[in-house]
Amino acid sequence: MSKYIVLCLGFLLAACGFQPLYVTHEDTLSQTAAVQIEPISGEGGYQAELILKKRLNPEQMKIAPKYRLVVTLNKPSYSNQSIRSDNFASLEKMEITADYKLIDIQKKQTLISSSVDSNGIYNLIKDPYATVMAKDKLYENLIRTMADDIATHILSYFKGVNP
After folding, report:
1. Tens-digit pLDDT profile for residues 32-89
2. At 87, phi and psi to the nearest 5?
3. Any bridge partners for residue 77, and if so which?
4. Would residue 28 be called left, alpha or beta, if left means φ above 0 and alpha means ψ between -120 and 50 degrees?
5. Those residues with Cβ within 8 angstroms of residue 58's Cβ, 6 or more apart along the chain or in another chain
6. Which residue from 112, 23, 116 is spatially nearest to 69, judged by alpha carbons?
7. Would the pTM count as exceeding 0.85?
8. Per-residue DSSP letter, 108
9. Burial class (CB within 10 angstroms; exposed 0-12, middle 13-18, buried 19+) of 62
10. Which residues contact 104 (CB under 8 A, 6 or more apart)?
11. How far is 61 from 51, CA to CA, in rounded Å?
């Protein structure tokens, strides 16, 4: 019975023009591959740059740049989320933001100008090493999430979908 429901849902989605964002056509792939990513400064800049390159040009096509992506990664902000009975924090929230622009190189026109943020919480425990490791891992995850969000916005733009 469940096979028929899935099959019917598939036909309904196909009939309404639904098309998955990540199933890219050749023209969309060539457009995203033509995005030149400017070096991103900051602690997680290199990681964000690698993720964006992988997401926007997964086949590593050699195409002359038509667009330029400029990402400004802001420093993370921290806030205590839970205070123990001895007045020390036990949880800390980290929030990072990035501003980005997609620019048409030939027309010198900004196509996308937006920002993205990501946040998460890590434990503050008595072992400083464990706390530093938790903080670093959260930072890596937040950078990955932000880079994915930027790539999704750019893919949406080239596919003509409003994000």
Report:
1. 889 999 999 988 999 999 999 999 998 888 889 999 999 999 999 988 877 766 666 6
2. 70, 25
3. 95
4. alpha
5. 29
6. 112
7. no
8. T
9. exposed
10. 66, 67, 110, 111
11. 16
Q: Coil, strand or helix: which one is 6?
A: helix
Give residue for tokens 């964000």: 48
Neighbour tally for 43: CB within 10 Å:
14
Check residue 133 and give left, alpha or beta (phi > 0: left; psi -120 to 50: alpha): alpha
Is residue 162 helix, strand or coil? coil
CA distance 161 to 155: 8
Residue among 115, 123, 147 at smallest CA distance from 45? 147
User: Distance (Å, rounded) from C-alpha 161 to C-alpha 163?
Assistant: 6
CA 38, CA 150: separation in Å to the nearest integer? 14
Single-letter amino acid code for the residue at 120 = G
Contacts of 108 (CB under 8 A, 6+ apart): none
Q: Which domains does the chain have, with CATH numbers?
A: 2-159 (3.30.160.150)
